[in-house]
Backbone:
C-alpha cells in the first residue's frame, strides 16, 4: 500500500515536469499525507481538522513559499534563479514578487476556506435536518478533503517546477490564468448571491413584521395565532438567507470549474 502511494506521488511529480521526482518526494509527499490525513479523520466524532484552522494552512503555505526558491536555486543556481524575476523585462520584478506573495496567501486561504465551509455547512444542516443531510455532507467532506489535499500538492509541485526554469513549466503556468479568471468570477457571483441573500430576506422580514403588527392591532384576539405564524414565516425567510450564504461559500471555495482547471494544470 505504501509503495503504491509512493509510486503514485512520484508519477504525478514526473507528469508535472520534474525529471527527478525522488528529490521532491520527501517534501511533496509529506504535504499530501499531512493534509489528506487531517481531512479524512473528520469521520471521528468531535474531531476538528487542523486544516480548518487558518494558522495551519498559513504554515503549510509558508513551507511552500520557502521550498520554491530552495528547489529553484538548487536546480538553476542562485544567479539564474534570481534572473527569472526580471524576465522578460526588468519591469516585471515587482509583479513577480507580488505574484510569489499572493499565491502563497491564496494557497492558505483556499485550503482553509474549503475545510471551514464544509464544516460550516454540516453545522447548518444539523440544525435544519439533523438525520439525513449531515451524514451525506460528511461523506462528501471526505471526498472534498482528499481532492483539496491533491490540489494543494499539485499547486505546490507546479510552483516548484516553474522555479526549475523548464520551458514546459512556464507554458503550463499560463493555464493557471484560467483559474484566476474563474476565481474572480466566483468571487463576484458570491458577492452578488450574498447581497441578494441579505437584502431580500431583510425586506421580507420587515414586511412580515409590519403586516403582523397591523393585523394584531386590528384583531387583538388573534394575536397568539398571528405571532406563531409570524415566527414560522421568519424562520423560513432566514433559512433562505442561510441557503444563499452556503451557495456563496460553494462558489468561492468549492467551485467545480476551479478545481477542474487547477487539476488539469498538473496533467
Residues:
Amino acid at each position: 500500500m505504501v509503495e503504491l502511494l509512493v509510486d503514485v506521488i512520484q508519477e504525478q511529480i514526473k507528469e508535472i515536469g520534474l525529471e527527478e521526482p525522488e528529490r521532491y518526494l520527501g517534501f511533496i509527499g509529506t504535504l499530501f499525507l499531512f493534509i489528506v490525513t487531517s481531512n479524512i479523520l473528520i469521520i471521528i466524532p468531535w474531531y476538528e481538522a487542523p486544516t480548518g484552522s487558518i494558522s495551519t494552512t498559513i504554515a503549510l503555505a509558508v513551507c511552500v513559499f520557502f521550498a520554491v526558491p530552495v528547489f529553484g536555486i538548487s536546480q538553476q543556481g542562485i544567479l539564474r534563479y534570481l534572473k527569472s524575476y526580471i524576465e522578460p523585462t526588468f519591469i516585471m520584478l515587482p509583479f513577480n514578487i507580488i505574484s510569489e506573495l499572493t499565491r502563497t496567501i491564496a494557497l492558505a486561504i483556499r485550503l482553509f476556506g474549503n475545510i471551514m465551509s464544509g464544516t460550516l455547512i454540516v453545522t447548518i444542516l444539523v440544525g435544519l435536518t439533523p438525520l439525513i443531510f449531515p451524514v451525506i455532507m460528511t461523506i462528501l467532506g471526505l471526498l472534498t478533503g482528499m481532492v483539496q489535499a491533491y490540489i494543494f500538492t499539485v499547486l505546490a509541485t507546479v510552483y516548484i517546477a516553474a522555479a526549475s526554469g523548464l520551458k514546459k513549466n512556464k507554458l503550463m503556468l499560463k493555464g493557471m490564468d484560467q483559474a484566476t479568471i474563474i476565481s474572480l468570477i466566483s468571487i463576484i457571483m458570491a458577492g452578488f448571491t450574498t447581497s441578494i441573500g441579505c437584502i431580500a430576506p431583510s425586506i421580507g422580514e420587515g414586511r412580515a413584521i409590519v403586516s403582523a403588527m397591523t393585523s394584531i392591532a386590528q384583531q387583538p384576539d388573534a394575536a397568539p395565532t398571528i405571532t406563531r405564524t409570524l415566527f414560522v414565516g421568519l424562520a423560513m425567510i432566514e433559512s433562505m438567507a442561510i441557503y444563499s450564504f452556503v451557495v456563496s461559500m460553494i462558489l468561492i471555495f468549492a467551485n467545480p470549474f476551479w478545481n477542474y482547471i487547477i487539476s488539469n494544470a498538473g496533467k
Observations:
- The chain has two domains: 2-173, 175-267.
- The chain has a mean pLDDT of 76.
- The radius of gyration is 24 Å.
